[in-house]
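For the sake of transparency, this paper describes our internal protein records without simplification. Because each token names a local backbone shape, the row as a whole describes the fold. One such record is reproduced below, unchanged from the form in which we store it.
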Amino acid sequence: MSADIDDESKDMKKFAMILAIVLAVSPAFAKKTHPAAPAKSASQAVVAPDSQQMETDLQKLTWPQLRFVIESVPKLKADVETYGPAGWKYVEARYATYPWKKNIDRLDDAQKRQLAELVQLARKSR
């Protein structure tokens, strides 16, 4: 069992390192825009992902992936850590059915997009 925990810990460290590298390098490849860029119309505006779908996506992650994602979004992390270590134990025991929708609904659009990107990244790291 200790070996499994060590392997999961190593995998999470690799995942965190890859994420850090991607986040550090991504601005270098970002497309430069001109200050006078035309405004997007309502149909072109980026829509924040659906809370219900994100809840389902979170529930499908493995525990180490979910914990990493939750720790990466400050408001979600604060919601769990409000209850201290017992909060993390509670979520771990019930993460496949934990009701995240209310917590996700409290996030602003930028945080929802960040959460969606982290979930996609976590899925790809399987």
